[in-house]
Amino acid sequence: MKRDATMRWLGGVHVVQVGRSAALQVAGAALGQLGAAVKQVATLRDVDTNADVVLVDRIERPAVLPDGHVPTADEYLEFVAANNNAVWVTASAFGLTNVRSNMFASDLTLLAAGGILGHSRIGDEFAPTVPPGTVALKLVGHLTVAAALHGIHARRAGKGPVHADLSAQAAIIATGLSLEMAHALSRCPDEGGSARYGAPSGFVDCRDGAVYVLVMEEHQWRAFRSVMGSSLESVTTLEDARKQPDHVNSQLATWASTRTAQECEEVLQGAGVPCTAVNAVDTFAERSRALGRNFDLSGPDCTVLPAQIAEVPKENGANSGGRRLSDLRVLDAGHVLAVPLAGAWLGAMGAQVAKLEDLDRLDVYRRRGPFVDGTPGPNRSAYFNQLNFCKRPLQFSGGDSPRAVDLASFDVVMENLSPHRARAIGVDDTSVLAQPSPKLLLSSSGFGRTGAWAGYRAYGHNIHAFAGLVNATKDARGGMGDIGTPWADPLTSVILVTWTLAWCLADSHTSSLALDISMAELVAVQIAELAGPDAVDPYAVRESETEFFMREHAGGRLLAITLRSDQERARFETTTGVRVPLIDRRVPLIDQESTDPDGRDLEQALLEQGLAVSVVHTSAGLVRDEFVRDAELFRSVESPSVGRYKVTGLPWTFVGDEVPPLRPAPELPMRG
Fold first, then answer.
1. Handedness of CA 620, 625, 631, 635 (dihedral sign)
2. pLDDT tens figures, 518-573
3. CA distance 331 to 339
4. Whole-model pTM?
5. Which of 14, 19, 45, 422 has the smallest C-beta neighbourhood within 10 Å, fewest atoms?
């Protein structure tokens, strides 16, 4: 039977949310949807110290103590230590225990500090493409939930009061920049990102709009070529196509120019090619509802954790809840990014995670790389290793058994396979829900498992386009833009972690649940404020803020800057000698040279003035950045075949605890 997405798993958990920041609004809503009793208070003065969880946001401004004192990070830590009786989660711009603990950020500067904007450039002469809304802060809100649930698990395992220290910069790096960081940490040649594999790859104009097309697999290329007909007769393989992308893209453009966007989408998807129309967010919501999905961005059914849920009662589940995280058995039956990253994080927290692999049809990342130091090998894939640490191998040969998995050995199953493939190996909803004991199935797909979309193929940028993010994003020239890195996938990873951690905390389970999670719906929820008749222009100048990029002439670095008041604008001018520009749109790029006489590091000088500023980083720059290197986000693992390499770990730590070591990704047996 179907049920809504509001759960009682966290019944009896009392949460205090201090303030109404963008991040905490998401965190409080998600915990409430999962069954917690959430009380919102204005200040730390109003906190009930007997609460099970306290959520505090220090990202954009300090958390004022009950006596009105504005504390340093050290003073704040002392206050928490004296008042925390259970779980306290603090989201800060850069964390609480380092040289930037007293510095702040904005959504814009987090996207810069986390490397997203550095990979969202249309040219050096232009400002980076800035996504609409507050997508970075909302993502940090979801990570705040995961950190809180991790803290509750630690408490129930016997640990004393837990203070989870979440760095917002680390949160963005560990999620939205996961592939690019893998590329940089593993010293891979060429460019990072999934689009490096593709031909065709990118946006294509149609008669009434545009579509996004990305072909990454040989079978997809064959399907695409069959649709294009004789125009691509001479381009026989995907490798050939990658060597002549301009020709391939021009043939696609000619074909699409006489068709509507939806027609292009349906024809190419029908052939098995990842192609999606560029929808407005309202259009996506309407199409979703027309397909039969209960998805609403404005009404009472709008949730921060959208999912379609099937439930099957079980008679023997009364004592199946309240597991320790270390006893939780998770099957990662996923591929590419969303499910594998979720599994890696759960493994890093202590869950027993098994990585299911068919040795006859390996993950595209294993097969294609990019590879550590540019040396090919199935155990040397930078992306696969980055997304699959802390798992044990569960490998089989596709020809050995049509049903590869003993589901009785697992509590939670996560998959993002095609419906046909999920059925073939026995991780589909029918198979999981038929098990006698309660199970949780998390099925992640681009557009959900309903109707025609169930078979749609998609990658991250397809999903951005379909959900409305691309339509709402404008580049520096005013044209259609997109976040330069996959955002839908790691966002989904965090959501999968949240569902799993919360389910495991329930006192009992009397049913099995299959959650159908649409990545496009998750993305649309992040920009829900842009839906409806009263939506505002996300790029209009904000009355209280001045945001812009400034290029440093001496070193050529680009700084992202947010000034929130006349006082901040005055401090900026005093520190830099640069007049704050008068702007008629959000986030322009100015070329002005600082007249600061001391030759100081301009970013550091502005941060010390309490301003939100960041260098526009790339993954390569973050690997070299002294502050990030010292933050223990990049963790070393030791592999039998690769040796020592680094992966991006969890973006939060428990104050006072050593960061647990990570284990390398499962490796394939070496063939003699």
1. positive
2. 999 999 999 999 998 888 888 888 778 999 999 987 778 899 999 999 999 999 99
3. 10
4. 0.95
5. 45
